[in-house]
Automatic annotation (TrEMBL):
This is Transcriptional repressor NrdR. Signal peptide: none annotated. A zinc finger (unnamed) spans 3-34. Keywords: ATP-binding, DNA-binding, Metal-binding, Nucleotide-binding, Repressor, Transcription, Transcription regulation, Zinc, Zinc-finger. The gene is nrdR. Negatively regulates transcription of bacterial ribonucleotide reductase nrd genes and operons by binding to NrdR-boxes. HAMAP family: NrdR. Binds 1 zinc ion. It comes from Cystobacter ferrugineus.
Length: 165
């Protein structure tokens, strides 16, 4: 591992910690040449299925691309970096668990939307507006109405039982 500051290959590990349920090891390092410290993350290299896009193109799964989309959707929202990382890890697990060589991009999109819906409704709508490519304001408004009706159902008090039982 080369130092990102001086490019010297010699460094020592100061601290190691597991994170994200043991799937990642965070290492704090110190360069032996310039004495600056930096952090590295170690994870098992996993082979993901190809992602089949809506237009039929096939791409390799790109964690950074998904992270960028999540960050854009969650910009200026109360969603922590840890919550974004948990979402990424969940999508990666989903892809590993499918056991197929190819997976439709819709599988990823729907999983991300499901998780964003639970994290932050504004981020969910932002992501959905790009993912679903709304053609006009009517489609966008329909999504918002669905979101509001979900919220109303969740906050409605239960009906009292009938007198008969």
């Amino acid at each position: 591992m080369r130092c990102p500051f001086c490019q010297d290959p010699e460094n020592k590990v100061i601290d190691s910690r597991e994170s994200h349920e043991g799937s990642v090891i965070r290492r704090r390092r110190e360069c032996l040449q310039c004495k600056r410290r930096f952090t590295t993350y170690e994870r098992v290299e996993e082979i993901y299925p190809l992602i089949v896009k809506k237009d039929g193109r096939r791409e390799t799964f790109d964690r950074d691309k998904l992270l960028a989309g999540l960050q854009k959707a969650c910009e200026k929202r109360p969603v922590s970096a840890d919550q974004l990382e948990e979402t990424l890890v969940a999508v990666e697990r989903l892809l590993q668990g499918v056991g197929e060589k190819e997976v439709a991009s819709s599988v990823i999109g729907e999983e991300v939307m499901r998780r964003l819906h639970a994290l932050d409704e504004v981020a969910y709508v932002r992501f959905a507006s790009v993912y679903r490519s709304f053609r006009d304001i009517t489609e966008f408004m329909e999504e918002l109405k669905d979101l509001l009706s979900d919220r109303t159902r969740e906050h409605k008090p239960p009906r009292p039982p009938d007198k008969d039982g």
